[in-house]
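Lecture 7, part 2: worked example. A protein chain together with adenosine monophosphate.
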Amino acid sequence: MRLVLLGPPGAGKGTQAKLLSEKFNIPHISTGDMLRDEVREKTELGHKVAEFVKIGELVPDDIVIKVVIHRLSKPDAKAGFILDGFPRTLKQAEELNKALRELNISIDRVIYFQTTPEVSIKRLSGRRVCEGCGVNFHLINMPPKHEGICDFCGKELFLREDDKEETVKKRLEIYRKETVSLIDYYKNNGSLREVSGDLEANKLNSQLLKMFAEEKLIAK
Ligand code: AMP
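Predicted complex, written out as structure tokens:
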């Protein structure tokens, strides 16, 4: 199965991508995670993108496109993949299409996570990320067992610089300017399905699995 998860920051794409990736044993390809890894590891690419990521601006198309196409060429993506946070511009969508066409494959579904700016801001300002293993928690929806400490590796949790309210507002504005047009782009080719990002994670996951079964993407 090849999926694209589309929607504003804080709509729950990452949580669903993780659940679906475990269920179908296909890679969760999050451009945000990949770029943050590069920044953390202080690679050449990390240096190039650090400032964009920190202030919540989009990394230039040519850089992100190269990263994604390289990732899609790895053997584990042969059986399928879940793209989370890519494409985010029309140019990225077109380049993705071109690359997939060359591989003779296509996206099965684009899942559009609909939510309001209020929900996005609430979700992201409560999100805490582990500095060690990168796992996400949430102060209210998914609190760690011990305040400020990762359940899995014991390292400290922090609030992402770009999850601060002012930066989230800017990311939402960029989403409206650059990414919203992709909804129509994918609607026009018939692959778009809309879900409510406001639903509780397990409920939304069941709804997605039911939809995939009804549309014969998976066995009932
Ligand atoms: P995310 O974790 O998906 O919210 O992404 C965090 C940050 O990574 C974004 O604010 C951008 O700076 C950068 N980023 C992630 N995906 C993309 C993309 N497809 N195009 C451009 N920049 C991206």
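The longest strand covers residues 109-114. The mean pLDDT is 95. Keep this in mind for problem set question 3.
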